[in-house]
Design a protein that fits this description.
By secondary structure, the chain is α/β, with parallel strands linked by helices. Helices cover 38% and strands 29% of the residues. It has 10 helices and 13 strands. It has a 6-stranded mixed beta sheet, with helices on both faces. A 4-stranded parallel beta sheet has the order 2-1-6-7, with helices on both faces. Helix 5 packs antiparallel against helix 6 and helix 8 packs parallel to helix 9. The longest helix is centred in the middle third of the chain and has 16 residues. The chain is globular and about 55 Å long.
């Protein structure tokens, strides 16, 4: 079996299952805690989770156990990997990357850990780029460069209906300045320097969504870009249509659900747009 570079990420990448499978990307599940139930996040029904959150039930998250990373790495090694590139959610948002580093020390092949400084499909697209280069027989340096370049170039734009859930889970970051704004004011956020940061305060959901699209169009400019729209109990149809109409350089559009762990932080009604230059 020829040696190859394996790529691993975590479930906050929001990679659709088919896309991860297509590129052979290992996805380690972050943990979700709802009341007295704890499990891999993909095992939770998102509609039930949204109902629990709206009812005020305790919802928290935690990184995977290092053992989950260890066995994912071991499986890659058993399938002939000569090295592993493992990309993860910002270390300022989660301790997931620390769990990956702990596991990497126990594996017989080199594991190169990347703290992406971001989350969602900004992370997902970086994993895809790394896997694409690896699948073409690229050397380790090229795989790492592909992942890091994609992360640096991406823009994550986030609409939340309220900052309350980010505040509860301690992930509000630099957007703390927006806490306590009037109910009708909708926050627009990004991930900058590894943490959630404010972009704008816009009156009303419709205007906020319009502004979110405007920001995505500006971020794309005249580049060739992949676009991802992820939702958590929100309707993305109009946003996707307008992005397709207004961004001529779109290479691909991925529309899907935010991971339930991300949903636990951003709250019901949230929607994000990832602009990732190819």
């Amino acid at each position: 079996m020829p040696a190859h570079i394996a790529v691993v990420t975590d479930s906050t990448s929001c990679l659709p299952d088919k896309l991860a499978a297509r590129w052979g990307i290992g996805v380690v599940q972050v943990q979700l805690h709802v009341g007295d139930q704890t499990d891999d996040e993909h095992r939770f029904d998102r509609n039930d989770l949204i109902a629990s959150m709206k009812s005020g039930h305790s919802v928290t998250t935690s990184p995977p156990d290092p053992g989950a990373f260890f066995w994912t790495y071991q499986d890659a090694a058993a399938r002939g990997a000569s090295a592993i590139v493992s990309l993860h959610i910002s270390g300022r948002l989660s301790e997931t990357v620390q769990a990956a580093r702990e596991a990497a020390q126990q594996v017989r092949i080199p594991v190169h850990i990347i703290d992406s400084g971001t989350a969602s499909m900004s992370l997902g697209y970086a994993a895809v780029s790394a896997a694409r280069v690896a699948g073409a027989g690229g050397q380790l340096a090229r795989v790492l460069e592909a992942a890091e370049r994609r992360v640096r170039a991406a823009t994550e734009l986030i609409y939340v209906d309220t900052l309350e859930y980010l505040r509860r889970t301690g992930r509000v970051g630099a957007a703390q300045s927006l806490v306590g704004t009037a109910f009708s004011i909708k926050p627009l956020l990004t991930v900058r320097n590894g943490e959630v940061s404010p972009l704008a305060r816009v009156p009303g959901t419709k205007r906020a969504m319009n502004r979110l699209v405007d920001l995505a169009v500006k971020a794309a400019g005249d580049q060739r870009v992949d676009i991802a729209v992820t939702r958590f109990g929100s309707d993305e149809t109009e946003v996707v249509r307008r992005l397709r109409d207004r961004i001529p350089g779109i290479t691909d559009v991925v529309v899907g659900d935010a991971s339930t762990v991300i949903g636990a932080h951003v709250g019901p009604g949230a929607l994000s747009i990832t602009v990732s230059p190819t």
